[in-house]
Amino acid sequence: MNENLFELIRARIPDPAKTVIETQEGRAIGYADLVAQSGRAANALRACGVEIGDRVAVQCDKSPEMIVAYLACLRAGAIFLPLNTGYTLAELDYFIGDATPSLMLCRPKTLEAMRGLGATRGVGAVESLGDARDGTFWAKVEAASPEFADVPRKGDDLAAILYTSGTTGRSKGAMLSHRNLASNSLTLVDCWRFTRDDVLIHALPIYHTHGLFVATNVTLFAGASMLFLNTFNAEAILARMPRATAMMGVPTFYTRLLEHSALDRETTKNMRLFISGSAPLLAETHEQWKARTGHAILERYGMTETNMNTSNPYDGERVAGTVGFPLPDVELRVVDAETGAPIPPGEIGMIEVKGPNVFGGYWKMPEKTAAEFRPDGFFITGDLGKIDARGYVHIVGRGKDLIISGGFNVYPKEVESEIDALPGVVESAVVGVPHPDFGEGVTAVVVKEKGAGVDEAQVLHALESRLAKFKLPKRVFFVPDLPRNAMGKVQKNLLRDQHKDLFKR
User: Fold this and answer.
1) What's the pTM value of the predicted model, to 2 decimals?
2) Percentages helix, strand, coil for the chain, rounded to the nearest 5?
3) Rounded to the nearest 5°, which phi and psi values hold at 473?
């Protein structure tokens, strides 16, 4: 049996003439168009030297053409490697060096710089793909035949690699198979009641799990349609709600929509489902949204390595401050973080998951992979949580010191390493503190050398060329010493508490 993710999607297309993507400008793309264009793109990949199992790195602006490139990789048996558009050249150098792609697709404006990087890292070809059906790669697509013999894939064959930053500062490539993505998509279609009649407002980026493997894949598996927005725009979203039935977003989407007087029960009367994820949704936001619209936001829990693990129920109470129940094909348990022993309901421990959604390991990091899995196959998420008496899962913290800002993962060690390398800096500690828009605001506390003149502006300026914008501290503070416990470990809990009101409005 061919378990190629694309073949599974193709088999569920309801009507080839049906519109699957409507762009922000009003351009309609049908399912038949998507099949034909992805066939052309698969042939273009071959013309660029991409073979079965090769990685295709993509740092492009959001567009239907990027979706086409993703589907083409599936069809060609290549491994899709999307990269955050905010990553700097310094960050990209690591990803490209680690993943060793045979092809890199980039924005037209960065083609020259990317070709320089590609030459340094031995990338076979570097082409551009724009958001206006332009770029050197799209020219190859338009010149190619739509006929392509899809490569048969087994369920365990890799479909994609998504990089997630590591606590040591070294990013890890999570290897996701065709079965990982297909199983999770089919489960979510069923749990969230998606059908061919649904119209999804798609305002998420498509270089991470939420926007690509949840929003896009669920739409395609349901045979539904997307109203495709290049970026989040509150006015554009509100204008499309009368034509839509569902929206997936991060908490920031909902807090910013709540600022608009046009958000009310009349505007949202055609909508059947609002989904939130990628960061904790405040109970206050949940309650305000329900009061204004009559809709209870459905919060779920997932991560790069596993796609989605839990969801509040479609039918049943969506409890604010929880992420619902484990999905039907997911096993979830809470254990003692040190011993791995199960703990009673209601007590806080480490969340571990197991299921067909869970990735196969980290790219070229077998020791790290082995360390993150229990002998019985459960993946150690690094998230602290509990299961209440009703079975709802609560996420209460993160054992891996992760900061989630605006739906993006920020690992303090990576930011700290860059700050510590600056002249005049002795050491630093980076924490996340509550932020009304972003969930958490990245905050740096720095110890500088005696007599050093380094200040907040200098630190931020130096980091701009080294880190993606979402990783940059929103504030930098200077202290004589960092607080430490008896073992010498920095007490970040004290720093978080000290600055907990920093971003209060």
Assistant:
1) 0.86
2) 30, 25, 45
3) -60, 140
Neighbours of 47 (CB within 10 A): 14
Position 488 scores a pLDDT of 63
Contact (Cβ atoms closer than 8 angstroms) between residue 177 and residue 157: yes
Number of C-beta neighbours around residue 125 at 10 A: 19
Q: CB neighbours of 498 closer than 8 A, spacing ≥ 6?
A: none
20 sits in the region (left: phi over 0; alpha: psi -120 to 50; else beta) called alpha
Cα separation, 202 vs 230, in Å, equals 9
Could you tell me which of 276, 278, 279 has the C-alpha nearest to residue 296?
276
What is the Cα–Cα distance from 428 to 298, expressed in whole angstroms? 38
Q: What's residue 245's pLDDT?
A: 98
In single-letter form, the type of residue at position 399 comes to G
Closest CA to 441 of 456, 454, 430: 430
CA distance 418 to 367: 26
Distances (CA, A) of 469 to 112, 352, 426, 464: 22, 31, 24, 7
Tens digits of residue pLDDT in 96-131: 999 999 999 999 999 999 999 999 999 999 999 999
Q: Across all residues in the chain, what is the average pLDDT?
A: 94
Six token digits for residue 236: 């554009």
Q: What is the Cα–Cα distance from 327 to 495, expressed in whole angstroms?
A: 36
3-state SS class at 331? strand
Alpha-helical segments (H) within 362-499: 366-372, 412-420, 456-464, 492-498
